[in-house]
Each structure stands twice: as C-alpha cells, then as structure tokens.
Amino acid sequence: MIRSVIYVDLDTTLHSLDKRVYGQFVEHLGRCIYGGIWVGENSTIPNVNGHRLDVLEAIKAIKPPVVRWPGGNFVSQYHWMDGIGPRDKRPKRFDLAWGQVEPNEFGTDEYIEWVRLIGAEPFIVVNAGNGTPEEAAAWVEYCNSTRDTHYANLRKRYGHPEPYNVKLWGIGNELWGRWQVGFCRDAEECAWRTVQFADHMKRVDSSIKLVAVGVDYDPEWNIDMIRIAGEYIDYLSIHTYIFTDRQGKTYEDLVAWPIAIEENLKHIYITIEQTRHRYRVKKEIKIAFDEWNVWYPEAQPPYLEQITSVKDAIFTALVLNALQRLSNIVPIATFAQTVNVLPLILTKENKILLTPQYLVFKLYTEITEGNVVAVDTISPHYISKELGLAVPYIDASAIHHQNKVYLFAVNRHPDEEAEIAIHIKSFTPIAVHHKYIAGTSINDKNTFEEPNKVKIEEKNYKFSETIKLPPHSVNMLILS
Ligand code: AHR
User: Which ligand 1 atom sits closest to the C-alpha of 342?
Assistant: First the structure.
C-alpha cells in the first residue's frame, strides 16, 4: 500500500478548461477512413449515408469537440478537388504518402457531414507539401464563402447551399521531415511558405484561425516560424509519439513520459512567448498538440494497427491530466488516431472493439467544462531510468463545475493500491461517485474474443477523507 495526499484548492482557479484538448484526428491511412469511418451507402455494415454506424455511435460517446482531417502525411499530397462532386466521377489516385490507392469516396462534403453527425468542430489541414496557396484558398472558398464565385458555387451545386464555416485550418503537416511529400529545406523556407498560404487563405475568409507547423524537439525551427510567420498564425502544431520499441523502455518509463511531455509543451510555449517579444510579434500564439499517442513496433505502414492495453490507458490519462493543467496555453489537442490507425477504436468486418485508451476518453469527456483548479499531490516516487526523473506514483488534476469537484487521479504503481488523503479547500463533499479503469494487470487488453476484459467500473460511497485507488488505475472521483 502506498500513501499519498491530494490537496485541492478550490479558491485558486488556474483557467477554465478548453474542451478542445479532448480532440481527435482521422487520416486517410490504413483502415481509418475506408472501413473504419466510411463503408459507403451500399455496405452490409449498418451506416448513415455511408458513415459506419457503430463507429459513429462510439465516437459520439466520447464527445470529441474537434476532429482534425485529412492528414497527417496524407495531406501533403492530397488535392481536395479530387474528393468533391458525384462520387462515381471522382478519380482514384495513388497516395504518394502511404503508397495506397485513394478512392476519394470520402471528401470534404462527407467529412463535414460526419463531423456534424458526431457533434464536433471541423479542423481541416491543407496541402502545403505539393499543393499551392491558390488551391488552399479555393478550399476555404468552397467551405466558407457565400459569394457568387466558382468554388462557393460548386459547393452549392453539389447540394450544400449553406457555408460550412470551417474556422480552424492547419497549414501543412510535419514539413520538417524528409518522409513528408514536399518537405521544406529548413524552417525559414517553411515559414515563408506558411506566410503565402496564410495570406491567400485569409484573403478569402479573414475570420479563420491557422495552425502552422512546429517541432517538438527543435526550438530553432519554432523560433524561425514565429519570427517570420508569427503575425499570420494562431497556433503552433506540435506532435509527440512515444515509441515503445526504444531499447530498455519499461512500463515505469512509459508512464513517466507524460511528465516530459508536459514540461516540453511548457518550454515550447516559453519559446513562443520569448520569440514574440524579441521580434515584436503582436499576435497571440498558442499550441495545437495535434498528434500524440504511443506507437508500438507492430504498427507498421500501411495499416499502423496496434492493440493497446491498460498501461497505455494510464499513459493516456496522464497526458490528459497534463492537458487539463495546460489548456490555457495548449487549448487544442487531437489524439492520433481515432479509428484503426494507432487506434482508440478497432473494427473487424462488422465488429467493433473499444480499447482501454478509448475508455479513458469516455471517462474524461464526462465533464468538458468548468474551472481547472490548483492541486498539490504528495506521493512516494520511483526513478525512471530512461528519463532520469523522479516520478510520483500519484498524479492528480481537478475540475470544479457547478458545485462538484471532478478529481482525476492516476495511480502509476503496477502492484500496490494507493490510500489517498483528500483535502479540499472551501468545499466539504458528502458523496463520492468513483469511476475507474484498472483491469487486472498493466497488460490487460480488450480483444475481439474478450471485448470487455477492461472496462469502466464504478462505485458510490460516502466521502471520508481517505480514498483508495486500485493499483495501475485511472480514476475519476465526482465529489459532491
Ligand atoms: O499518425 C500517423 C502519422 O504520424 C501521421 O500521418 C504523421 O503526421 C505522423 O508522422
């Protein structure tokens, strides 16, 4: 048994939660779109206008506030006009990014219909790889314009008289990497390219918000991007994957990584602020953490499939705790990815599988508004050899909303239960609704054969100042 103290200070609000930190990302890659999200109207798999119904319902249940599309690497060679108009007339293309055949059955109109069905805000990334600023501006016109002009009229002709009002747009994806079609030579080139794209796109709709390519481990890249393109952009895109095949990475290292991620995001924000001040960039710029996940060696192109377990659920919950704490400087985060690719949700023919990581999103998105309040945790530690860090076994974050405290507490300990003394300033709870995900071991997974091995469990009890958290568990305590 480990002992810990959590002190929640309801008198100190850090910021109000930006629910967009619970966003998702879907890409034309492997079986994410085709077979995962889209099966077509003639499929024997139940669907709504071609959108796969079981996946639609599962995604609705985790209430993503925003969904990024169409890539990822895919977007750097995607020409959006291939994906509009009568479906039987759309060209099949060879996808230069992933080496697949892109049938273009799912395009802008299908994506917009799908995000509306799940109740999310669209977030479209434009092709800044082998695409042009004109093509990107035409996409903004197609989506947002009411004018009597070519691309707006195309949208109307294809059955959508009202504009889609897509507010959030990304300019390119990972243009610093040689794997990216149309990659940039260096940050300066990418920043000037970003300026041209932003300028073209904003001439069509000045109200749009733009996300520019940043790097998680290269401050010099980020400095050049802010220095050159700062007045044109609203967010810097940051991606982080934890590759679990690195030699010697243990469970303890994996669940230590969210600390490094949180620190890194804070450092990137400091770099943004320092650069803005140094170069007198007036525009406020925040971070869009628009790809993040664990990545196992079995997740290989072109499918990138993996089935994650309780340990990955713990990693995911720890990142979400960090994102709650950072949501004033990282207001947007999109998990990579939602369906079949590094997935939260897997499909096999007409079956669907919800992973423990999915269950974490289910738990956390129960409350998507409120104030993130100050929390201090005193906990025993262990040492992560990979990161050289002292890691507390317990991590906690809290949201205060309408006379309830939602305490998100993770017990990293692989074997021991945690006894937590909870102190809340300015609030005396009476009841606890305790929901948690733990399974029976850190390696427990859900499979098509045993889909409910790991589930959300719950209990209700009277509040007493000591609460127990199971070993290797993700917990939400609703204190009222
Ligand atoms: O999410 C899979 C891929 O990982 C994305 O296409 C790319 O942006 C990243 O490198």
Answer: 1
